[in-house]
From TrEMBL:
Predominant location: cytoplasm
Encoding gene, per UniProt annotation: hcp
Lineage: Bacteria, Bacillati, Bacillota, Clostridia, Eubacteriales
Reactions the enzyme catalyzes: A + NH4(+) + H2O = hydroxylamine + AH2 + H(+)
Enzyme category, top tier: oxidoreductase
EC number from the UniProt entry: 1.7.99.1
Family: Belongs to the HCP family.
Organism: Anoxynatronum buryatiense
UniProt xrefs under Pfam families: Prismane (PF03063)
Cofactor note: Binds 1 [4Fe-4S] cluster.
Keyword 4Fe-4S appears in the UniProt entry: yes
Record's function text: Catalyzes the reduction of hydroxylamine to form NH(3) and H(2)O.
Name of the molecule in the record: Hydroxylamine reductase
Keyword annotations from UniProtKB, A to Z: 4Fe-4S, Cytoplasm, Iron, Iron-sulfur, Metal-binding, Oxidoreductase
GO CC entries: cytoplasm
Length: 546
């Protein structure tokens, strides 16, 4: 195996024996093969799309396959074997359709378009030859992977939107085109840089699509005090990013005597008006994803993972873990997709919860969030006044991911060290490094404004664009906003590419720069976009405020 897609890649170079995340080598290799097969599907679907003959099933397969390979989403070997088989069958269907509708059209002559096999041994033999290192040129490899990881992040957001019946053909057509182009050896580094920025454009579109899907289904997030204590009844803990699962779980648990709590990236579900009507929705339990070994143990009841981030569960609570969507782990019960027109069936979790103790209290009190674009724009006058009077000197976008590395204490210290006249705009699980600190407010505006999940970084961009308009500025970079983003997995990659596409410059990225950026590709990002890493808290605060 060779994997360097996340921030915890071994030695910031790559995992080669087993993932730091716990992904075994055979699963890592089969994930590489699945990406290869998905590119084969894309070669055909791209041609069919150009003829107006694209097949919706190929869009769903591509989105689900990319999403399943995201860090901490799925560790189940059989899932990847099945997906590879399905992909090969689907590719055949697409090939037949292409011959039927346009006998003169052929796909480019690429291995991904023709390779096939039927046994696990053959899959594994091929898998070891189609991974990241199959691209020899370091810079081409770096750009290809940057685009691939951006597409994986985008796929996650598109998948959640699909679950809410929102699709956008332009986005999936682009994704197929991009995947097909990643098999083209004659693309130059410049071509790939252009494709990287285009990926960012569709990143904005994908986040906008999901924002639209979430808010039209559940209303716009609003300022909310979220309880972080516990009730007295047994509960189900729901984690990940999928709000449709949240809705159906709340509905099915109503009146059963079982409470519902959010964990990690599901915290923002507390901010949506549609979920507030449920009395048994108690609040949020615990912190970001990597604390789950202790927090899932202490929760005492079943836990539902609706997407990443899943940590390989300990035996002490493994029987209480359930996965759904693209999340998976061998030996863990997987809740099947909803049949057309009806709900998923969460009966197993509810029955399980009934036999469990209530959660052990970890903390008490509340945290405040719900500052997505509509809520912040409703407060725009207040915010603009505060900027004009100098009560707010600067905003810091500190969106992104949290993870295990010790050096991430930087983000807590950075938040604590920021002057009192600054406001943090956050989204994603990065917030858990500072969302429980007593940072106070500025004239009633909390100093940490949480927009929501990582995809709600879109909200932060909408807010920035609105402020630019209100202040009559030409350039988004003239706003008093600095970007100090923490990344871990591939959703942060698409958020970053989306910000670059919107013209945001001088983004600081930490705690380490991606291992997949070759020195030359890193230089392109530094020279053209002012991307930088992080230094010490003191030096960075000085730099940002100068
Ligand atoms: Fe290593 Fe990250 Fe890949 Fe897991 S996802 S194998 S930790 S680089
Ligand atoms: Fe967190 Fe995994 Fe990235 Fe949605 S839950 S931000 S790390």
């Amino acid at each position: 195996m060779f994997c360097y897609q996340c921030q915890e890649a071994a030695r910031n170079t790559g995992c080669t024996k087993v993932g730091v995340c716990g992904k075994p080598a055979d699963v890592a290799n089969l994930q590489d093969l699945l990406i290869f097969v998905t590119k084969g599907v894309a070669l055909y679907q791209h041609e069919l799309n150009q003829l107006g003959q694209g097949v919706p099933e190929a869009d769903h397969f591509m989105v689900g396959s990319l999403f399943a390979t995201i860090t901490n989403a799925n560790f189940d070997k059989q899932v990847f074997v099945n997906r590879i088989q399905d992909g090969l069958t689907l590719r055949k269907t697409l090939s037949n359709k292409l011959t039927a509708v346009s006998p003169a059209t052929s796909v480019p002559n690429r291995d991904a378009a023709v390779w096939t096999a039927h046994t696990l041994d053959a899959f594994e033999a091929k898998a070891s030859t189609v991974g990241v290192l199959a691209t020899e040129n370091e810079d081409v490899r770096s750009l290809r992977e940057l685009i691939t990881y951006g597409l994986k992040g985008l796929a996650a957001y598109v998948h959640h939107a699909q679950n809410l019946s929102q699709e956008n053909q332009e986005i999936t057509a682009f994704m197929h085109r991009a995947l097909a182009q990643l098999t083209n050896d004659s693309l130059t580094a410049d071509d790939l840089v252009a494709l990287t920025l285009e990926t960012g454009k569709f990143g904005v579109d994908g986040m906008s699509l999901l924002d639209q899907a979430n808010t039209s289904a559940y209303g716009h997030p609003e300022i909310t005090s979220v309880n972080i204590g516990v009730g007295t009844r047994p509960g189900i803990l729901i984690s990940g990013h999928d709000l449709k699962d949240m809705e159906e779980l709340l509905e099915q648990t109503a009146g059963t005597g079982v409470d519902v709590y959010t964990h990690s990236e599901m915290l923002p579900a507390n901010y949506y008006p549609a979920f507030k009507k449920y009395d048994h929705f108690i609040g949020n339990y615990g912190g970001s994803w990597w604390h789950q070994d202790k927090e899932f143990a202490a929760f005492n009841g079943p836990v539902l993972l609706t997407s990443n981030c899943l940590v390989p569960p300990k035996d002490s609570y493994k029987d209480r873990v359930y996965t759904t969507n693209t999340a998976g782990f061998e030996g863990v019960v997987h809740i099947a997709d909803r049949p057309e027109g009806s709900q998923k069936d969460f009966t197993a979790l509810i029955e399980h919860a009934r036999k469990c103790q209530p959660p052990t209290e970890l903390e008490t009190g509340t945290i405040v969030g719900g500052f997505a674009h509509q809520q912040v724009l409703a407060l725009a006058d207040k915010v603009v006044d505060a900027v004009k009077t100098g009560a707010i000197k600067q905003f810091f976008v500190m969106a992104g991911c949290d993870a295990r590395m010790k050096s991430r204490s930087y983000y807590t210290e950075f938040a604590e060290a920021l002057p009192q006249d600054t406001v943090i705009l956050t989204a994603g699980c990065a917030k858990y490094r500072y969302n429980k600190l007593p940072l106070g407010d500025i004239g009633g505006i909390p100093r940490v404004l949480d927009a929501g999940q990582c995809n709600d970084s879109y909200s932060l961009a909408v807010i920035a664009l609105k402020l630019k308009e209100v202040f009559g500025l030409e350039d988004i970079n003239d706003l008093p906003i600095s970007y100090n983003i923490a990344w871990y997995e591939q959703k942060a990659v698409i958020v970053l590419l989306a910000l670059l596409y919107l013209g945001v410059k001088n983004i600081h990225l930490g705690p380490t720069l991606p291992a997949f950026l070759s020195p030359n590709v890193a230089k392109v990002l530094v020279d053209n976009f002012g991307i930088a890493g992080i230094q010490s808290v003191e030096d960075d605060i000085q730099l940002f405020l100068s």
